[in-house]
Design goal:
With 486 residues, the protein is of the alpha/beta class. The two termini are 50 Å apart. The strands form four sheets. A five-stranded mixed beta sheet has the order 1-10-11-9-4. A five-stranded mixed beta sheet has the order 2-6-7-16-13, with no helix packed on it. The chain binds S-adenosylmethionine. The site of S-adenosylmethionine has 14 residues, from strand 7 and strand 13.
């Protein structure tokens, strides 16, 4: 019935795609993702924009110096530890909030964010916060966006601040100085006179307006989620949940990346929620066609999807058609371990019987448009983390918000089978994905799924290269710099 496309899909770039109206993250959609997002909100103190700073920045635009960034030895850090899933996630969330983000602006911001010069600059600044003062390098970056006539927005300022690891207030200062200088140049004497007369006429009103504008801007900055601060404030320390599984690495010294484990799918604010018309159940009287046997093992893997009984049905939780919903969603017998040549993987510490439910695939459900925004960055960093949902409606992104299924590696002879399933609703746009054992799996075996792509499609994790040929050279350079290539 359903046609499952179960591959961790490497996205292709669509140059024709333009993002015109992407809503901001400030909406009232109450879903699990939003709740979790809001619970992390917290106010932070923003220093008032200081006029002296603005004047200094103004002078800087005229008399700026090029910063001297000492060459950082390659061994000090590597690219993978720099572009952690968390940093990438914070970055893309920031981009998604730019209401007028076009493909061109998306490309431009991403190129700057991952470019060697800015990686190097940020890392240096992070470790030596007082060493680089106002620099031409930074001013030129703001100039680039200013003079390309990108519309001013708090989100764009935040994105630029993430590229250069400076506070949004600092970036705004540069932007305002450019604005001031540009407007001064454009003004002829008569306009200047009119302005002065206006100021004399309504001095108090103008001051009032300016004050209100600044207050509004500061309020907006304060609304900006604390999570993002990590992108520009070296004092910020990530506070993420502990990993609920055991982790084992006897291959190298790599630590598991910082991730947010979730126990239910998160729904991106732009996706909406399942249609209530699809909330229905059965009487359970004539429903003998369950896919499970009396031991709760899957007996039919040829079915398009599993429709478990739910709160709309006449049965209760003991019904034999409630296997997945009654299973433990954090099976401690599974372990994340380091494989020899596939990065991290998952293995089972206890034998698993054929037909057993093993895990659900969890992540953030995003729509096509959001996945296109994210794919620009993922393509540049060669990150493969999409799992297509059925019928091409939505995608599931598990690069950062994930469960243990994020670590399932591919095998053409996989021991897990992938089956879509539904419990409370039957809206195919929000189908859930379950993994069952296709055969008995001995203890300590790696568990794998078939991504339905050829093995040759995998580059060894440690030599990832850009899918984007324009950035290939630059990325080669970054990889070399980061110690990945000789
Ligand atoms: C969903 S992730 C699996 C977890 C991944 N191994 C890790 O360390 O994060 C998919 C990525 O794992 C790697 N991978 C999965 N199966 C592989 C295989 N059979 N051979 C080589 N690499 C594989 C590829 O880099 C792929 O992009």
């Amino acid at each position: 019935m359903t046609k499952m496309n179960n591959k961790f899909n490497k996205k292709k770039k669509d140059n024709n795609n333009q993002f015109t109206t992407i809503k901001t993250t400030n909406n009232n959609n109450s879903n699990s993702y939003q709740n979790s997002y809001n619970s992390r909100r917290s106010n932070r103190i923003i220093k008032n924009i200081n006029n002296n700073n603005l004047n200094n920045l103004n002078n800087l635009i005229i008399n700026s110096t090029i910063p001297i960034i000492p060459t950082i030895p390659i061994s000090e850090y590597n690219l993978k530890s720099y572009f952690t899933p968390r940093i990438v996630y914070l970055w893309i969330k920031n981009l998604e909030s730019i209401t007028y983000l076009t493909q061109e602006l998306n490309e431009r911001l991403n190129s700057d964010f991952i470019s060697l010069e800015w990686v190097r600059f940020r890392e240096y600044l992070k470790n030596n916060p007082d060493q680089i003062t106002d620099s031409n390098f930074e001013v030129n970056l703001v100039k680039k966006y200013y003079f390309l006539n990108y519309e001013y927005s708090i989100e764009l300022i935040q994105a630029i601040s993430a590229i250069m690891f400076r506070s949004p207030i600092y970036v705004k200062g540069i932007w305002d100085s450019l604005d001031k200088k540009n407007n001064n140049n454009n003004n002829d004497d008569s306009t200047a006179m009119t302005n002065i007369n206006d100021i004399l006429d309504s001095n108090s009103k103008i001051l009032q307006d300016v004050y209100e504008k600044i207050t509004q801007i500061e309020k907006k900055f304060m609304e900006f989620d604390l999570q993002y601060e990590e992108l520009w404030n070296f004092k910020f320390i990530a506070n993420v949940n502990a990993i609920p599984y055991s982790i084992f690495n006897d291959v190298d010294s790599e630590k598991l990346p910082i991730l947010e484990f979730t126990f239910e799918n998160l729904i991106h604010w732009d996706v909406g929620s399942p249609d209530e018309d699809y909330n229905y159940g059965c009487t359970c009287k004539d429903n003998f066609d369950y896919p499970f046997n009396k031991n709760g093992k899957l007996i039919r893997s040829d079915i398009g999807a599993i429709y478990e009984c739910n709160s709309f049905c006449g049965c209760n939780f003991t019904c034999p058609n409630r296997i997945i919903q009654n299973s433990n969603n954090c099976n401690k017998n599974l372990q994340i371990f380091k494989t020899e040549n596939k990065g991290w993987g998952v293995r089972t510490l206890k034998p698993i019987k054929e037909g057993s439910f093993v895990m659900e695939h969890l992540g953030e459900i995003i729509n096509h448009q959001t996945s296109e925004i994210r794919s620009v960055c993922y393509d540049k960093l060669n990150i493969m983390t999409y799992f297509d949902l059925d019928y091409g409606y939505n995608k599931k992104n598990s690069n950062y918000w994930c469960n243990i299924s994020r670590f399932l590696n591919h095998s053409c002879d996989a021991n897990l089978v992938t089956i879509p399933f539904f419990v409370e609703h039957k809206d195919i746009r929000f189908q859930r994905i379950a993994f069952f054992a296709q055969r008995d799996i001995p203890k300590n075996s790696e568990i794998t799924v078939d991504y339905k792509i050829h093995d040759d499609d995998f580059l060894p994790i440690s030599s990832a290269e850009s899918a984007d040929s324009e950035n290939r050279d630059e990325l080669e350079e970054v990889l070399e710099y980061a110690g990945y290539k000789k």
